Amino acid sequence: MHESFIYQGHGEPHDGIDTMPAPPPWRDTRHRGRPAEPPGRSVTARAGAYRATPAAVQSVNAALMLRRPLLVTGPPGSGKSSLAYHIAHELRLGRVLTWPITSRTALRDGLYSYDAIGRLQEAGLAASARSGRADRGVDAWEPRHQETPDIGAYVRLGPLGTALLPADRPRVLLIDEIDKSDLDLPNDLLHVLENGEFVIPELARLAGSTRTVRVHTDDGALGVGGDTAEITEGWVGCTTFPFVVLTSNGEREFPAAFLRRCIRLDLPAPDVEGLIDIVQSHLGREGVDRGRELIHEFVRRRENGTLSTDQLLNAIYLLLGNGTAEARSELLDQVLRPLGPAD
Fold it and tell me: What DSSP string describes 111-137?
């Protein structure tokens, strides 16, 4: 058993947790507050780890000029999602709006959410409070508009909905792992991505002075209150198309109607030089110097099975804290396990 290990496995209580080193940069939440960018998704940090290929530069410019989504395909660790942060950083387009996709994701999840139950509950509590004041002989009269809570407080635009708000510069929207979606989602996206607009039915039904409502946006999702936007008659439409990056691990085929509306980019797994750049951006020169042999071993192992760049970073980070030859061998076996067979 290595003395440097925090957990020894002998079952005797001890204070080894106090010796735990600082977390890896990509897992550091010590400075978490309410930043302009979500923890772990910093535009600057993610952009610094990316090196654009000539093919990526050409595809990005084509997508920018044509106002078309960019569909990026490649193996894990090829930099698909980092490309979105690199674009936002270089073009000064602000925080990247991120929409992670699962098999249960529907179009509305990206557009907006409406907490109807929460609104009804607040209305019920307000009615109970008025009734209690009346029972105590207190004047319970209140203006009519206070009887039903403001609907805008219960509507929040999702990342796609926020990206479609009017803006002088395009927002960058990352739709991550679109290939994991339900079969209908790519087709459901067609109208929104083609026309840059959508309607919120719950707001469109409002009349009179309530036609314009202030709602929360995805930019304010990290804290209390947060950013808001005014929506009139339930309609949201962009004045400049957002730059949409859709990532795919190539696990499925997409409908032809969806593909023809996208600019497509295939990213290869990073070579040795690319991996050195990535390791240096995250772990500094020491990570490159002490992990150089491991980088070459990683590339060799990748030929016989799918490996992610994240696995390499994890292995080198651990190697920096426990660099014995025995530990190195164990790290290779424990951390660099193939994710799947080689293509």
Answer: HEEE-HHHHHHHHHHHHHHHHHHHHTT
* Tens-place pLDDT, residues 55-100: 999 999 999 999 999 999 998 888 899 999 999 999 999 999 999 9
CB atoms within 10 A of CB 70: 23
DSSP string, 159-170: HHHHHTS--SSP
Query: What spatial distance separates the first Cα and last Cα of the chain, rounded to whole Å?
Result: 37
On whether the CB atoms of residues 177 and 248 are closer than 8 A, the answer is yes
Amino acid making up residue 289: D
Which residues, 6 or more positions from 235, have their beta carbon under 8 angstroms from its beta carbon?
Answer: 197, 198, 199, 200, 204
pTM over 0.90: no
Question: Helix 309-321 crosses helix 325-335 at what angle (to 10 degrees)?
Answer: 150
User: Pick the residue with more confidence: 80 or 135?
Assistant: 80
Q: Are 167 and 238 in contact (CB under 8 A)?
A: yes
